[in-house]
Automatic annotation (TrEMBL):
NCBIfam families named among the record's database cross-references: hi_GC_TIGR00026
Record-given protein name: Nitroreductase family deazaflavin-dependent oxidoreductase
Organism: Dictyobacter halimunensis
Pfam families named in the record: F420H2_quin_red
Amino acid sequence: MQKEIQHLAGEDFCYLTTIGRRSGKAHTIEIWFSLNDATLYLLSGGRDKADWVKNIYQQPSVQVRLGSITYMGRARVLAAGDEDELARQIVFAKYAPRSTDDLTEWSRASLAVAIDLLNEVK
């Protein structure tokens, strides 16, 4: 799958759909991302206080729309380590040149989340 999705790495945003931990309803947000093979990386500036992160803790099965294609995925909140550092580096590298804000502190202080993309939703 990784070759078939790499052309979507340059999209400005992805659309992440989680299941509400209280409502049980689908909630979709627009969020910055970076793609590495078949894993999508996100940074939560609100850390674990963000609703989408709270939803992931409750139900890690998610959907991600990249361009016009929707994928099923499994989300993981990353602990400090190599993958966490990779997530920070590649999301920062993608958006820092595009932003008028200094994203350095955001990339350091955010909570890193990985989504392993599983299959396309038909």
